[in-house]
Design brief:
The complex is a heterodimer of chains A (359) and B (270).
Chain A: E1 6-15, E2 18-28, E3 33-37, H1 44-52, E4 59-64, E5 67-68, E6 79-82, H2 94-104, H3 109-122, H4 138-150, E7 156-160, H5 168-185, E8 188-193, H6 196-202, E9 205-210, E10 213-218, H7 220-225, H8 230-235, E11 242-251, E12 254-259, E13 262-265, H9 272-275, E14 279-284, E15 289-305, E16 310-316, E17 319-325, E18 334-339, E19 344-348, E20 351-353
Parallel strand pairs in A: 3-8, 3-9, 6-7, 7-8
Antiparallel strand pairs in A: 1-2, 1-4, 4-5, 9-10, 11-12, 11-14, 12-13, 14-19, 15-16, 15-18, 16-17, 19-20
Helix pairs in contact in A: 2-3, 2-4
Chain B: H1 2-28, H2 32-36, H3 49-58, H4 60-91, H5 97-109, H6 112-126, H7 132-157, H8 160-168, H9 173-184, H10 186-202, H11 205-210, H12 219-224, H13 234-254, H14 256-268
Helix pairs in contact in B: 1-13, 3-13, 4-7, 4-10, 5-7, 7-10, 8-9, 10-14
Classes of the chains: A alpha+beta (359), B mainly alpha (270).
Chain lengths: 359, 270
């Protein structure tokens, strides 16, 4: 008997000839906040709809609270969903919207009233209960949509890009609030987004999808610090990781990355024997470039100020390099810099090569 | 200057469309003498004699009753079927959906006369000539294309998320249809209902063909039958025509807002 809050096993789904999900399996523990992250069209929303029962998979199984729900219709699965468009019922008041799922479950009127009140207070929308959705702002609608999901205390919450219709400032504050709400209610949540910041800040666990295939499952830290492959490394992190094509050469037993005239010794990478002379890609996180002193020199081409930090576009022996730093720099002047080795990643083919200490 | 021309044109159009209607309303309140007076009397004396006479001598109320029954039944059945058909067309991803909609359109364009013969034979065999169902069923057939088109185009405009939300909240598909989709498409449903009602209320040809017994005839046929071989009761015809028209005018006035938003809905969103 499996007691995970949600388990997805071997889900496959095609629309016509297009395979949108290929053998997706993952688990979400009780109270865990799982974010499915990926570019648009990667299949994350389809996966969510399959969990909800709005879409039927070609193959695979779904378990919620240890019970198989693979072929059950949505109302028997005990899940609630928050839609990107909010999907509030326009002809009902806020109160009626929130009471609707309870009414469908045939709760008595007193119980409904009490639960709606309680939820509305939790979300601070108790003064809006008599309004219609069209009289609400985007943020308020969002709260009502969340309220309608919370009010039934379902086993699993499903969120389909719930913040993407809000402006940047509101999105940031709703994000914080969602996390706080999650900690208060402690419910299992599956959250779909293409926004890496949402994923990094909200998730206990991130599932990164591309073209219907899971690229990596891990905590936000793991995803960032140990990206499984080139896709993960480039998708997560702003500005994007620098990628240099080059060759790995063994020199006196130390692996040396060579790209044109640029060379860097990488003492902490293992498996280098097998890679001697092979083409590899070196990934350099922008914040791993430390400006000020060091053995490397480059010319500053452009500077973007972000307030506390700046983004510096460097030219390094004919190659572009982006750095995110506090260090001093002036346009068109040469600077010295070094690399922080934690932010360096080596890829062979698509896969990342692990470091010795990670082994 | 241009404004004046515009106004003049509007007045001409209004007069042309309202003129006949105003004339028979006017006539219905005249007396027997005033009707045939030359030059014509514009201001009638306000007699209701023709109304009384058309009820007493020409069974006007029986026609009104028959028309009301037939038009109401037709509207209810057509709209109910349109809701289901429109929903399937708009949402269920039927194969060859476009073909189905086009076929409906084509069917609705058949001249009535071309199906009159078969319809009569079928009803004859069923023994449904001179029955309400005998008239209602052909009416439903003829109005269904309109109903399905209007309802389907309204359903298509509603975001699918709403229905998904309702289904997750615990509705069945039918529940989502009647609790969410139908209330939100009310303008469209009303528009379709009124158009269907007007059609069934006004229809003459099938009514004449199928209802040969006077006690089941509808208003348009009934009024046409006022005319005898040697008599032309203008006053009674005018009175009956007024009675036939007023309910429709009231209906449209009451639901005016909804109808306008219904007719223009397609224009706002693709």
């Amino acid at each position: 008997m499996n007691m995970e809050a949600l388990e997805v096993v071997g889900i496959k789904k095609s629309f016509g000839r297009v395979r949108v999900l290929d053998d997706i399996s993952f688990k979400a523990g009780e109270g865990e906040f799982v974010v499915m992250l990926g570019p648009s069209g990667c299949g994350k929303t389809t996966m969510l709809r399959i969990i909800a029962g709005l879409e039927v998979q070609d193959e695979g199984y779904i378990y919620i609270g240890g019970k198989e729900v693979t072929n059950l219709n949505p109302k028997l699965r005990d899940v609630a969903m928050v839609f990107q468009s909010y999907a509030l019922y326009p002809h009902m008041t806020v109160y009626e919207n929130m009471a609707f799922p309870l009414k469908m479950r045939k709760l008595n009127r007193e119980e409904i009233k009490q639960k709606v009140r309680q939820t509305a207070e939790l979300l601070r929308i108790d003064d809006l209960l008599d309004r219609k959705p069209r009289e609400l702002s985007g943020g308020q609608r969002q709260r009502v949509a969340i309220g309608r999901a919370i009010v039934r205390s379902p086993k699993v919450f499903l969120f389909d890009e719930p913040l993407s219709n809000l402006d940047a400032q509101l999105r940031a504050s709703m994000r914080v609030e969602l996390r706080r709400l999650h900690e208060k209610i402690g419910s299992t949540s599956i959250y779909v987004t293409h926004d890496q910041i949402e994923a990094m800040t909200l998730a206990d666990k991130i599932i990164l999808l591309e073209n219907g295939v899971i690229q990596q499952i891990g905590t936000p830290e793991e995803i960032y610090k140990k990206p499984a492959n080139l896709f993960v490394a480039t998708f997560v992190g702003t500005p994007m990781i620098n990628l240099l094509d080059g060759t790995l050469i063994l020199k006196d037993g130390v692996p040396l990355f060579k790209s044109g005239e640029f060379e860097i010794a990488l003492p902490s990478f293992k498996e280098y024997f097998a890679l001697d002379g092979k083409p590899v890609v070196l990934g350099i996180r922008p914040e791993a470039v430390t400006i000020g002193k060091g053995p490397y020199r480059a010319t500053v081409r452009q500077i973007e100020h972000l307030g506390s930090e700046k983004i510096i576009y460097l030219e390094l022996k004919g190659k572009d390099l982006v750095a995110k730093t506090h260090g001093p720099a002036e346009t068109d002047r040469a600077v010295c810099f070094d690399f922080n080795e934690d932010g360096l990643h080596l890829f062979y083919g698509r896969e990342r090569i692990e470091r010795i200490e990670e082994g | 200057m241009r404004k004046w021309i515009l106004w003049a044109l509007v007045m001409v159009i209004v007069f042309l469309s309202l003129g006949p209607f105003l004339w028979f309303v006017d006539t219905s309140f005249k007396t027997e003498v005033e009707v045939t007076a030359i030059p014509p009397v514009i201001c009638p004396s306000g007699s209701v004699g023709f109304y009384v006479s058309s009820i007493k001598n020409y069974r006007l109320l029986s026609y009104v009753k028959n028309s009301a029954i037939v038009a109401t039944l037709t509207t209810l059945i057509t709209i109910l079927l349109s809701l289901f058909a429109g929903y399937s067309v708009a949402r269920l991803g039927l194969p060859k959906r476009e073909l189905f909609m086009k076929a409906l359109l084509v069917v609705s364009m058949f001249p009535q006369i071309s199906i009159a013969g078969p319809v009569w034979r079928i009803l004859y065999r069923l023994g449904w000539l001179n029955t309400y169902q005998g008239l209602v069923i052909p009416y439903v057939t003829l109005t269904l294309p309109l109903g399905v088109w209007v309802v389907a185009s309204f359903f298509k405009q509603l975001p699918e998320d709403l229905e998904d939300a309702a289904i997750i909240d615990g509705c069945s598909r039918l529940g989502a249809l009647f609790r969410i989709m139908v209330p939100l498409s009310a303008p469209g449903v009303f528009t379709a209902a009124i158009l269907v009602f007007i059609y069934a209320w006004n229809e003459f040809f099938f009514a004449l063909l199928i209802m040969t017994r006077q006690d089941v005839q509808t208003l348009p046929v009934g009024i046409a039958m006022f005319q005898g071989q040697y008599t032309l009761p203008w006053g009674e015809i005018a009175a009956a025509s007024t009675v036939a028209t007023v309910p429709l005018v009231l209906l449209v006035f009451v639901f005016q807002r909804r109808i306008i938003s219904g007719l223009s809905a397609g224009a706002i969103k693709g």
